[in-house]
Amino acid sequence: MRSFDLSPLYRSTVGFDRLFSLLDQASGVEAGVPGYPPYNIERTGENDYRITMAVAGFSDSELSIESRENTLTVKGEKKTEEGRDAEVLYRGIAARSFERRFQLADHVEVKGASLENGLLHVDLVREIPEAMKPRTIAIASGKNASQQIEAKAA
């Protein structure tokens, strides 16, 4: 019997609490080079999450973030540098474009984004509608219970 490493499933999902939702994502393949750019997914509160991506060399004008349905897409398009006189002898800082997609659970929304020190932070929050939150039902006992049942039957 083989054991399966499910850690790749946890890397691209935010807000899912059920294994079946994670398994549905296993069939999808991310666009671009896997692993670029590197990122972290953190849980910062009960219903708060943060995605941090290492986007060194990209300015905020070269990055775009789009949230559509249950998919968060982060794109980086490096502009060509025209008119530079310097010849690059070794390029260790990646200058390639990328597109990274994250599948979001229901009711997870983007709260904001910031770029500082080469790290792009995308803050997410899961806002469950009042109608879907658990509620407490009062249990009647004694004479009141029988009166309520009779009133409904009439």
Automatic annotation (TrEMBL):
Record flagged with keyword Lipid biosynthesis: no
Keywords on record: Stress response
Residue span(s) of domain SHSP: 30-142
Domain of life: Bacteria
Pfam families named among the record's database cross-references: HSP20 (PF00011)
Gene3D superfamilies from the UniProt entry: 2.60.40.790
Family in the record: Belongs to the small heat shock protein (HSP20) family.
Protein name: Hsp20 family protein
